[in-house]
Amino acid sequence: MDETFEILTLIQTGKSSVVPVVCLDRPGGDFWRGWDAYVRNSLSGRGLISPSDLALYRVTDSLQDAVQEVRDFYRNYHSSRYVEDRLVLRLHHAPDMEALERLNEAFRDILVEGRLEVSRPLPAEANEPALAHLDRLALHFNRRDVGRLRLLIDALNRLPVPATTASGIPEGGPPPDPLL
User: What does DSSP say about strands 111-119 and 22-24: parallel, antiparallel, or unpaired?
Assistant: First the structure.
């Protein structure tokens, strides 16, 4: 329990990257469900944590569900880093314009300014050539609402995988370069 609170605190305060945290109980066990009830009732219920912070972890007694949680977390999301004052989420595929608009509407509360923007690798990322093929979503994150950031990552992971041609280019051609 101590280590679980420690990692969640590190994630919640931005001292650690958002990662999938799964509290796995034995089949039929109730240890983590009891812990979850405490977190929901005593911490979230009293306003000591944000309701969205509950998205930072999952509780299950199924090994298959635990594995699926980790797989789903990395379905589209790859990694993130700060580049100057922007958080850059690296993705296997960027949202299309319609999805980007929905995401901007749903998650504008976590932005200090501007909008979520699809991006190519930023110049400061030139030292990471192995990640150059990944799409980017750049945002001026408020560095406070990490539970909401996790919900954004979950939404990005639910995006449909774009159909591609035999050459690997999305049908309809490559997306327009948002930097032009």
Answer: unpaired
